[in-house]
Design goal:
four-stranded antiparallel sheet; about 350 residues; mainly alpha
Length: about 350
């Protein structure tokens, strides 16, 4: 019997995820061993067969999903994420966008591992390890993409001029990266608790912690959208204070396209996060968790759109060299940087700029 799967008792009662059986009175009973909670007890031969379920010997009622994960769809997503990984690695090294590259790197690795696990489940949806890997990786992966998006806001502030923004670039970066880190910790901790749970209450605790992490990610993205809207409004209202040294960059097609791509990425990650909150709120085997098309669209396609936008309009390319020029130190100090025209000037790091 799989750890995170469920089987069907002789009377048709579902034995739900994480080794728990929903008993006739509506309560959950832990399956202490393979034979303990089944009435009448199953033979050793039957139990051995349950451990070795295949699509030809068991029904999908005994699998992790009510469907067999599509091989073609999951392979396509894996290939797209693999290409994006190669592109981000090349562009990150080429333009020295180290922090952005690191965030995208982490998220893409998790997406690739998660979809490879789903590919494994397309031939055997009963096995536990791929299910666990897929669940954890695809839950926490987009938090890294959120971090990459957050790192861009401070750079945009510098391009338009730090006097226009409500807060310093460093403040934007610190606040949103801390929010994202908390979301990542909660999601990872929730997955770990659910994975190692030995009773229903602990399992539900893990699910609730994961939901809290996803909910916090949604709240952080909402706050980020508000901050971006506020910055756009202030730029419009105080256009005379915009940094004229960056006029060429700001009016270029590439920079405008990057702003649009950033907006698209933010929106799609937000939609995906809302979906995962709703999905996990219903449990691992709720209705949303058993609708493959919904998952492939609201999880997979949303993230594909986000990483395609952030790779096609990579900040290293679209900032035309200004990304590296706008580097900063964590401690307020003056440092030399090159402006977009290649000239040297001293900037006070008190204004702060986003970390690479």
């Amino acid at each position: 019997m799989s750890t995170l799967g469920y089987t069907v008792a002789p009377n048709g009662t579902n034995i739900t995820s994480l080794g728990w059986m929903l008993e006739p009175n509506g309560t959950y009973g832990r399956i202490a061993d393979d034979n303990a909670c089944l009435s009448p007890p199953l033979s050793s031969d039957t139990l051995a067969n349950l451990r070795q379920c295949t699509l030809t010997t068991c029904t999908l009622a005994q699998a992790h999903f009510d469907y067999v994960p599509t091989l073609a769809g999951n392979t396509l997503y894996t290939a797209i994420f693999g290409l994006a990984f190669a592109g981000q690695l090349f562009l990150g090294i080429r333009y020295k966008t180290w922090g952005f590259m690191g965030a995208m790197f982490g998220g893409l690795v998790l997406e690739i591992v998660g979809y490879v696990s789903r590919i494994q489940m397309s031939s055997n949806p009963f096995t536990s390890n791929p299910f666990l890997i897929y669940l954890i990786c695809l839950t926490i992966g987009p938090a890294f993409f959120s971090a990459a998006v957050y790192l861009c806001l401070a750079r945009i502030v510098v391009v338009y001029g730090t006097r226009i923004a409500r807060f310093s670039p460093r403040t934007y970066t610190t606040v949103f990266i801390c929010c994202d880190f908390l979301a990542l910790v909660l999601q990872g901790a929730g997955g770990g608790i659910a994975d190692t749970a030995n009773d229903y209450s602990t399992t539900q605790l893990g699910i609730n912690v994961m939901i809290a992490g996803l909910g916090w990610q949604v709240a952080s993205l909402c706050l980020f959208i508000v901050a971006c809207g506020d910055l756009a409004w202030r730029i419009r209202q105080r256009s005379a204070e915009v940094d004229h040294k960056t006029t060429t960059l700001r009016t270029s097609f590439k920079f405008k396209a990057f702003l649009c791509a950033l907006g698209v990425a933010t929106l799609t990650i937000f939609i995906r996060s809302c979906f995962r909150v709703a999905e996990l709120s219903q449990g691992f085997h709720g209705p949303l968790a058993n609708q493959e098309i919904t998952f492939m669209v609201l999880e997979g396609a949303m993230i594909v759109i986000a990483i395609t936008a952030l790779t096609t309009f990579h900040p290293g390319v679209c900032f035309e060299g200004y990304w590296a020029a706008a580097d900063f130190g964590l401690k307020g100090r003056k440092k030399q940087r090159a402006n977009v025209d290649g000239e040297k000037e001293v900037m006070d790091d008190e204004a702060g700029v986003a970390m690479d």
